[in-house]
């Protein structure tokens, strides 16, 4: 079988691309890559960022392009939810809060005010009194300020997003291969050969590679090129809540919060029920471009083995301590039942923007999630699907320059 498009990487961007391709007529499409493992073990080759129930989605943002991506993606969730019968988006709202005069919080406030005004959306000013009235269990720093907006803000289950895209795509005829791709080569006739770990190979006229943090391993890109990605081992701490706390905090939005006395910006996912029946509030820290990584929060990773080991870690005491300290300061009256660390790897680009583009004719890559692209996944998938079919960038709302693919050797 010769496929028209082979999508390599069945994660957030890849599964979304397969979903959008599956809606196009007369196209033979396949999606390559393993599903989520029951347990992360070191004998497994690759992992993904999509193994979680809670990823913040927000149009409260510093970057206008990201507001468009998030907004367009959010408009598409109802259709995908209907088609798959899976719940993806929960509109609990989003707040950005920090000490008065903080330049980064200022940036969020300005772009959000502009966007909400343009789109006719409500965006409320937040101060200490607002917080006392709405979220009395949350103790912010003194003289804090920020914004809260409900519409199009909250969180998505990225796990369900991926499952939904895959199930609809398969229903629409996309062929799924669960193997790891071990190399991609161009044949004399111009088609591509994708070698799978089981020794089989797939032939396809066009390729989309969306392998997240693993994109630079396994010789997937033409000419053994390497994307300009910095890999960062990231840790989050999930706090299990009892029934009383869950009820008390039921109106909690997703949040980005800057404590006064700490250099990091913290993100908080409100109480979310996980497949094990427990409800967790999750805390992580916002990774910004050129962030000087602190050992207490995570670490840069270089090799395939580094990345595999990071995903399979059992504990990271520094991060555990850091997040527990902040939880206690923000929620002094809430006593968690237990805590659970989770490990994941982020692929950062120098610009802080995602990369979506052709690396040669008929060969598109999407990578560089920068720790914030679950919310853009569905829309990035649409751009990839439309562009790979057209043979050039196909998204009038956004400028391809903003998503330019850059390589390790500095070439663009
Ligand atoms: C802890 C953490 C918290 C985050 N929080 C948020 C948040 O609140 N909001 C938000 O919007 N974003 C968040 N993100 C970021 C978001 O999850 C990622 O940016 C996004 O999921 C990346 O999508 P991707 O498709 O590039 O990669 P992934 O979703 O990781 O998918 C890559 C896929 O490729 C597969 N693969 C890799 N190599 C191969 C190969 N050789 N052959 C076949 N398959 C392969 C993997 O198995 C995986 O399924 C967070 C990320 C982390 C780590």
Question: What can you see in these coordinates?
Answer:
Strands 5, 6, 7, 13, 14, 15, 16, 17 and 18 form a nine-stranded mixed sheet that branches. Strands 1, 2, 9, 10, 11, 12, 19 and 20 form an eight-stranded mixed sheet that branches. It is globular and about 70 Å long. Helix content is 27%, strand content 28%. It has helices spanning 12-21, 64-84, 103-119, 128-134, 158-171, 243-248, 304-311, 317-330, 377-390, and strands at residues 2-8, 29-32, 55-57, 89-90, 94-99, 124-127, 144-149, 154-156, 175-177, 181-186, 192-196, 201-209, 230-240, 254-257, 266-273, 279-285, 298-301, 338-348, 355-360, 363-367. It is built from nine helices and 20 strands. The structure holds flavin-adenine dinucleotide. Residues 8-14, 32-34, 46-50, 55-56, 158, 180-181, 210-212, 214, 218, 234, 236, 284, 344, 346, 367, 369, 371-375, 377 line the site of flavin-adenine dinucleotide.
Order of helices and strands: EHEEHEEHEHEEHEEEEEHEEEEHHEEEH
What is the mean predicted local confidence, pLDDT? 94
Question: Number of helix segments?
Answer: 9
Query: Which shape, going by the Cα principal axes?
Result: globular
Quick one: CATH class of the largest domain? Answer: Alpha Beta
Round the Cα radius of gyration to an integer and report it.
21 Å
Spans of at least 5 consecutive residues whose pLDDT stays below 50 are none
Distance between the termini: 34 Å
Question: CATH superfamily name of the largest domain?
Answer: D-Amino Acid Oxidase, subunit A, domain 2
Main sheet makeup:
9 strands, mixed
CATH architecture level-2 label of the largest domain: 2-Layer Sandwich
* Small-molecule binders: flavin-adenine dinucleotide
């Amino acid at each position: 079988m010769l496929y028209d498009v082979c999508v390599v990487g069945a994660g957030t961007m890849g599964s979304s691309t397969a979903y959008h391709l599956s809606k196009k007529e007369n196209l033979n499409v396949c999606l390559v890559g393993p599903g989520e493992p029951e347990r992360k073990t070191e004998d497994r080759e690759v992992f993904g960022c999509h193994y979680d129930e809670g990823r913040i989605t927000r149009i409260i943002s510093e970057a206008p392009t990201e507001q468009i991506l998030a907004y367009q993606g959010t408009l598409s969730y109802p259709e995908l939810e209907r088609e798959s019968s899976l719940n993806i988006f929960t509109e609990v709202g989003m707040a950005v809060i920090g000490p008065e005069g903080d330049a980064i919080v200022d940036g969020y406030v300005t772009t959000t005010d502009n966007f909400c005004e343009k789109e006719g959306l409500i965006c409320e000013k937040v101060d200490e009194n607002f917080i006392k009235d709405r979220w009395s269990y949350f103790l912010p720093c003194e003289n804090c300020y920020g914004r809260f907006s409900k519409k199009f803000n909250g969180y998505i289950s990225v796990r369900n997003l991926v499952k939904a895209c895959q199930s609809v795509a398969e229903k629409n005829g996309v062929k799924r291969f669960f193997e790891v791709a071990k190399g991609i080569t161009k044949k004399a006739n111009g088609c591509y050969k994708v070698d799978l770990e089981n020794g089989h190979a797939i032939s396809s006229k066009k390729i989309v590679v969306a392998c997240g943090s693993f994109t630079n391993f396994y010789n997937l890109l033409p000419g053994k090129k390497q994307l300009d990605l910095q890999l960062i081992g990231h840790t989050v701490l999930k706090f299990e809540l009892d029934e009383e706390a869950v009820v008390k905090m039921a109106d909690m939005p997703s949040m980005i919060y800057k404590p006064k006395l700490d250099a990091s910006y913290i993100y908080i996912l409100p109480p979310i029920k996980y497949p094990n029946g427990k409800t967790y509030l999750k805390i992580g820290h916002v990774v910004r471009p050129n962030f000087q990584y602190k050992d207490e929060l995570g670490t840069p990773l270089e090799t395939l083995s580094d990345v595999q080991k990071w995903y399979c870690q059992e504990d990271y005491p520094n991060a555990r301590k850091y997040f527990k300290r902040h939880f206690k300061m923000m929620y002094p009256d809430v006593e968690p039942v237990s805590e659970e660390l989770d490990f994941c790897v982020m692929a950062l680009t120098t610009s802080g923007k995602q990369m979506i583009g052709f690396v040669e004719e008929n060969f598109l890559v999407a990578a560089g999630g920068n720790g914030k692209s679950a919310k853009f996944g569905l829309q990035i998938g649409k751009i990839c699907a439309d562009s790979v079919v057209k043979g050039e960038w196909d998204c009038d709302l956004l400028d391809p320059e903003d998503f330019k693919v850059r390589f390790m050797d500095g070439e663009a």
